[in-house]
Amino acid sequence: MPSADVIREAVARYLKAVADGTAGDIAACYAEDATLEDPVGSEPRRGRAAIREFYAAIETSRRHTELIALRVAAGSAAFHFLVRTELPDQTIDVAPIDVMTFDEDGRITSMRAFWNPDDMAVRRHGQDG
């Protein structure tokens, strides 16, 4: 089981990759056979290639992440964070709670993101109104 410090570092690396990295950088935070369920209730994605494809949707946007709270226990982490995605016509804020498990190397083996569309705050740009 990875130490709490390894898990904290893995969460920080993941949040940095979501903010600044490519889809490949984010997927590299995951184990090769990891699963991703984002949001919870959606069809889980399995494997690094499917995870890379999932994150490709945000790759060209400007993003910012901010950790709000982190709890680590027994090889797992639960954390609340803000992710702001800036698109040409709108900015989207969502603050999911992610639950992750990790391997000995600090790679994510499973991720479940708790949020739904009602949790999103959307600000449109360039519209009168």
Automatic annotation (TrEMBL):
Segments forming domain SnoaL-like: 11-110
Keywords, ordered alphabetically: Isomerase
EC number(s) per entry: 5.3.3.1
Pfam families associated with the record: SnoaL_2
Residues making up the signal peptide according to the UniProt record: none
InterPro entries recorded: NTF2-like_dom_sf, SnoaL-like
GO molecular function, one term: steroid Delta-isomerase activity
Claim: Isomerase is one of the keywords in the record: yes
UniProt protein name: Steroid delta-isomerase
